[in-house]
Amino acid sequence: MALAAILFALAAGVSAAPAKQTNRSKQKAAAEATRAGIQKKLANLKKDVVRTESEREEAADELAESEEAISDANRSLRELAEEQGQTNRKLQELDGAQERLAATIDKQKKQLSQLLREQYVAGNEDRIKLLLSGDNPNRISRDLQMMAYVSKSQARMLESLRSNLATVEANQQEVQNAKDELEEIAAEETEQKARLEKQKAHRKALLGSLSSRLADQRKQIGNLERDEQRMSGLVDRLSKLIEEQALAAAAEQRRREAVAAAKAKAAAEAKALAAARKAERERLAREAAKSGAKPVPVQPEPVVEPEPEEPKVAQQPPEEKPENIALAPAAPEGAFAALKGRLRAPVSGALTASFGAKRGSGPSWKGVFIKADEGSDVRAVAAGRVVFASWLRGFGNLIIVDHGSQYLSIYGNNQSLLKRVGDAVRGGDQIASAGNTGGIEESGLYFELRHRGKAFNPAGWVNF
């Protein structure tokens, strides 16, 4: 009974915490607010593009929104799967801690029961009864010491048990929070999958209704030439931006070196002048000593402080360029050229169109087309930085990687883009998944290599 009363009091002391919003929910709400603002800006930009685009009537335009939504849904599912794995690992760790705490509490309960039983068998005499019993003082002192020891042991054990019970309660709350987060992730995955299936069905219906129109349009030389002009214009703008930033960085480095050299030269001249003046003073002092004249008092040389470096003014990129992004150097100079002949294919599949081959009656291929299953991994051929990741007419979901030294690799017609502008990638990193966006009928990857804005044959560089 005594043990039950103690455990009841301890359990009552640990109050259940009220249900709280999970940390993931708070972070997600903040991210959604930020994403909403970005999406609003993008929507406004797209409206401007639509108003100024002269080729709005192409059938491929009707696919853009659906294909972008499929890419976003696939990326969200991928991110949710990673988050779910992390939460599951956390839940396993919490379960292990819960088992260890339960074993410790069970052990402490048994020890407390044993102490209470021993105290009951001993007669549960208190200190007052012992002092007034008139028994042997030595026995009384020994019994009092024993009672003090038992009381301290009980107090320590009760305190430890109370602490462990509180830890168990906190652990249970954390486990519940992790389970709530898993439920949220599962609900979001279900929603994303439903959205993805809806978009795929919508896109399939669009392709079915527009297949004949798309076939006719792709046969037209003008459309293919405009597609090529869009790509060339995009590459030219990106190359110019990269070059401007590289020149600005080089100019800043030269300015810093010039300032450092001027400071070093001024310091050296000041040191030489001080040495010459010191030598002159020593000579005058020696001559005065020889002639017995009173030495001329020496004035200390003024300390010449170096001029402070002028503050750096951050260069602002031109405002008229929509691709105003911070492009740090993607790779050391010459690193990409050194990989010639040793680059791996960006996707596994069969080469169905080669560089320079005629596209029907239209212009020649500026890259290659690799036939691949929908959803196949598309990987960067070398290290670099993503400078473009969006939908482009004729090329669908397109991603471009800058490898430094004005080399670019281009990956088109993707189902999903897994990297964003500014992301650094390594050779072999997955950056997209293959598809047939942009109006093509065959699933695969369109791949180009460019240097100084000009496309060149990737066959001598990549092992297809």
TrEMBL record:
Top-level taxon of the source organism: Bacteria
Q: Which UniProt keywords apply?
A: Hydrolase, Protease, Signal
Any one Gene Ontology biological process term?
Answer: proteolysis
CDD domains with a match to the protein in the record: M23_peptidase (cd12797)
- The reply to whether Signal figures as a keyword in the UniProt entry is yes
Alphabetically, the GO molecular function entries are: metalloendopeptidase activity
Span of the secretion signal? 1-19
Q: Which InterPro entries match?
A: Cell_wall_metabolism_enzyme, Dup_hybrid_motif, M23ase_b-sheet_dom
Q: What is this protein called?
A: Protease
The lineage, from the top, is: Bacteria, Pseudomonadati, Pseudomonadota, Betaproteobacteria, Burkholderiales
